[in-house]
Amino acid sequence: MNSYPEVIDALNLLLGSELAAMDQYFVHSKMYQDWGLNKLYERIAHEFEDEKGHASLLIDRILMLGGQPDLSTRAAVRIGKEVAEMLQHDLNLEYEVAEQLKTAIALCEQKQDYTTRDILQVLLKDTEEDHAHWLEQQLGLIEKLGLPNYLQSQL
After folding, report:
1. Tens of pLDDT along 71-130?
2. How far apart are CA 134 and CA 22, in angstroms?
3. The pLDDT value given to residue 3
4. Is there a binding annotation on residue 109?
5. Residue 133, marked binder
6. Residue 60 and residue 47: Cα distance in Å, rounded?
7. Which CATH class is domain 5-153?
8. Any binding-site annotation on 136?
9. Which of 79-87's residues contact partners 24+ apart within 8 Å by CB, and which partners?
10. Record-annotated residues binding Fe cation 3 (predicted)?
């Protein structure tokens, strides 16, 4: 199936961000595991799997549209050194992905590629309502409880 090159470019940009999110979540989850923060490890390892699923959907759609998935161009991976910084880096990446998704959704509507738009809307819902919301909650808990109490709750 042929599509607009702009849609494939937008999907490849998103793919680069999802792959970066995978890498970032993977490293952060391993750091949490190493520190004994098992609840954070489990949740961030789950986020890694979600991002892997997002990347897979994007690759499938790029291929369906006759494009070539670009696995070499990725967004910046930001690895934190302490918990609040790690959570903030993850949240910032989710915000960036949400903006890219909104731009790509608008492009798909302009090009009347409603199937791709529908796929991206599912990813946007997951990004905003699950990933970003949970990260915002964690940073809010750190602010309300203080870092030591928060960390104790994550053991």
Report:
1. 999 999 999 999 999 999 999 999 999 999 999 999 999 999 999 999 999 999 999 999
2. 17
3. 73
4. no
5. no
6. 20
7. mainly alpha
8. no
9. 79/24, 79/27, 79/28, 79/31, 80/28, 83/32, 83/37, 83/40, 83/142, 83/147, 83/150, 83/151, 83/154, 84/139, 84/142, 84/147, 86/28, 86/31, 86/32, 87/135, 87/138, 87/139, 87/142
10. 46, 50
130 labelled ligand-binding: no
Using the predicted structure, report yes or no on whether residue 21 has a pLDDT greater than 80.
Answer: yes
- On whether 28 is known to bind a ligand per the annotation, the reply is no
The pLDDT, as a whole number, for residue 137 is: 98
Q: Where are the domains of the chain?
A: 5-153
Token pair recorded at residue 55: 């990347």
Q: According to the annotation, is 128 in a ligand binding site?
A: yes
**Does residue 2 carry a pLDDT above 70?**
no
Q: Is position 50 annotated in a ligand binding site? A: yes
| 46 has binding-site annotation | yes
For the chain, the 3-state helix, strand and coil shares in percent, each to the nearest 5, are: 80, 0, 20
